[in-house]
Amino acid sequence: MVDDDERAPSPEEMLRVIEEQSHATVRLLQGDPRLLYVPWGVSWLLGFAALFLHYGLDGRSYLPISQMQAVSVLMGAMIVAGAVSAYGIVKMNKSVRGDTSARGAMYGYAWLAGMVLASLIAIRLGPMLPAAERGLLWAGGPLLVVALLYMLGGAIWLNWPMFFIGGWTAGVNALGVLLGPGPHALLTAVLLGGGFIAAGLWLWRRQRG
What we know:
Layout: H1 11-30, H2 33-36, H3 38-55, H4 67-93, H5 99-125, H6 131-156, H7 160-179, H8 181-208
Helix pairs in contact: 3-4, 3-8, 4-5, 5-6, 6-7, 7-8
């Protein structure tokens, strides 16, 4: 007589196990959305809110915050966000081997190179521009890097939400640059800062489901 613990699993049970393992694998390969999206959202909400309070919509500051103080808040917050996101990428990368791991490592180095280059360009060209355009260069340059690398990451891992979020970032950044420093800061704080926080939490809940 076969004991219940030794009986062969039914097709339904095998299918359930396969689905659970599949979901677990997807979660490992896609990483934790809270680490990949929420830190950037928080950094942009804080940094670009500070810039908006400096610029205002009509060129008059809403609070006595200098441009350098606002940019310092933005850059400091982005450095922290980049470190947290890099940790998320490294954590995701530890669960895979071979070509996927190598792609993850190169992708992480691309983030570092892009941010350093954007900062160097702003440092070199910023003094040649009026104050408002100089702030726009510091704000729009890193956002361009983020947008392109999110789209690239979506292409590498066939992650459509990541690709579309990168496209959304590029579109908001482009519109803000065309409208000027004040509108750019407001749009980025609300649509990208708040949007990235919402997207990270929503993707995390969907991933757990």
